[in-house]
Amino acid sequence: MKKQLNIGIIGLGVVGSSVAKILKENQDLIAARAGCQIVIKKGVVKNLSKSREIFDFPITNEAESILEDPEIDIIVELAGGIQEPFKIAKKALYHSKAFITANKAMLAYHRYDLQKIAGDLPIGFEASVAGGIPIIKALRDGLGANHILSICGIINGTCNYILTQMKEQNISFEEALKEAQKLGYAESDPSFDIGGFDAAHKLLILASIAYGIDAKPEDILIEGITQITQEDIDFAKEFGYNLKLLGIAKKDKESIELRIHPTLLPQNAMIGKVDGVMNAISVVGDNVGETLFYGAGAGGNATASAVISDIIEIARTKSSPMLGFKTSIEKNLTLKPIAEIQSAYYLRIIVLDKPGVLAQITTILGQQEISIDTFLQRKAKNKNHSTLLLSTHTCLESKIQIAIEKINNLEITQEKPVMIRIEKD
């Protein structure tokens, strides 16, 4: 074992700076765990003239200088993006260097490409999902004796904070978003988070480890939280639900369903009780049953903690398959078509306030073999309109989508109906 492991870091923003800080402050502890000294030999940034804290290692704007440095053992990529980090990863592996990344977007598209290129070279990506929660190692190693039956996760803290504030402060989505931006929980352009895309990238990574399935973001159901209103929050409260943006993976015989969307969960569900910016992931294995992982899903120190855990693992010379499978036993698994997903559903429909309206809607639902479970009618802002809030029993996604389209085309319907899925199990 080497007495010293040399690191090159690409990207010294919030996470990269935290990695450097923790490696320095906890160097004796980390060395004791790793079995050698961990030393940052060089860092790479885009803009050398930008004001930044002083580091005790040289900084350059040329990534090639660390990729080609024979003394550097591990490349840590924390710059973000998709194609450029993929190029960096390939070059690092071609130069026989271990590679660590927190880049969920790049992995959502190129994780299988990297696994093929890497061979026996280790790739660490614990920080790519749920910040400081060690969910990658849990799925890949700790739960390795289990067929994973399902994964259900709150894996975007921005959305969880917004929905929590809407529930607790009785404020609108727009007000909660502004508050999240003010506190630094949401970006100035929050579309990647509130649109569900950030969570989708993370879910795809988890699904690869759990099931060995190679899906891309374009292949799965992705819906964000921008259409959520106080009426939906009130309905959830009244009928015993919590409303969360969830990443859901389920195994159904030889198919896997993958989806990101707002979800109504029973209030007694453990994961539904997780509020604020925190993340939580429920994993159900065929032997272990349900396990719940909870913690900070973002932030410099939490994410840096996960990055350094990968460095320590590599320093111990442990080399395991990137996505957890040395050979595939799940060769017949396929991605379930979105139309074949089954769920219960909640609908919010704004209609003209006149006789016969409910009959028209129930007729359409009946034609699609959809039965109503609960129903509320509220006055809308316009005195001539009513808001219908209803939930259904379990039915096919294809049938609810047909019903929504038909209801939307009725003359009585004033806006396109809003639909939220319900998880009852």
TrEMBL record:
Pfam families: ACT (PF01842), Homoserine_dh (PF00742), NAD_binding_3 (PF03447). The active site is at K202 (proton donor). It catalyses: L-homoserine + NADP(+) = L-aspartate 4-semialdehyde + NADPH + H(+). It comes from the Bacteria. GO terms for molecular function: homoserine dehydrogenase activity; NADP binding. GO terms for biological process: methionine biosynthetic process; threonine biosynthetic process. SUPFAM superfamilies: ACT-like, Glyceraldehyde-3-phosphate dehydrogenase-like, C-terminal domain, NAD(P)-binding Rossmann-fold domains. Keywords: Amino-acid biosynthesis, Methionine biosynthesis, NADP, Oxidoreductase, Threonine biosynthesis. NADPH binds at K104. The keyword DNA damage does not apply. NADP(+) binds at I10, G11, L12, G13, V14, V15, G16, S17. It is an enzyme of class 1 (oxidoreductase). PROSITE patterns: ACT (PS51671), HOMOSER_DHGENASE (PS01042). L-homoserine binds at E187. Belongs to the homoserine dehydrogenase family. This is Homoserine dehydrogenase. It comes from Helicobacter canadensis MIT 98-5491.
